[in-house]
Design brief:
mainly alpha
């Protein structure tokens, strides 16, 4: 319902007793929440700035920039 297909796939895997789960970058709308974590509020709004901040804060999969 939230539009994150990997999450749905993981629910099915969990229900089947599997322990290998799909991973994907968070949707652009969720990046400010994910990047913020326990740090200061995120004020960046452009995809490029959000990906750069995520990379700077240790989310190495975001270092390549927006897909």
């Amino acid at each position: 319902a939230a539009g994150f297909g990997e999450g749905c796939d993981n629910v099915v895997s969990l229900a089947r007793g599997m322990d290998a789960f799909a991973r994907a970058q968070p949707p652009l709308d969720d990046l400010p929440i994910v990047i913020r974590g326990s740090k200061a509020a995120v004020t960046e709004t452009s995809p490029e700035a959000l990906y750069a901040l995520g990379c700077e804060r240790g989310w190495t999969e975001l270092c390549a920039g927006p897909p």
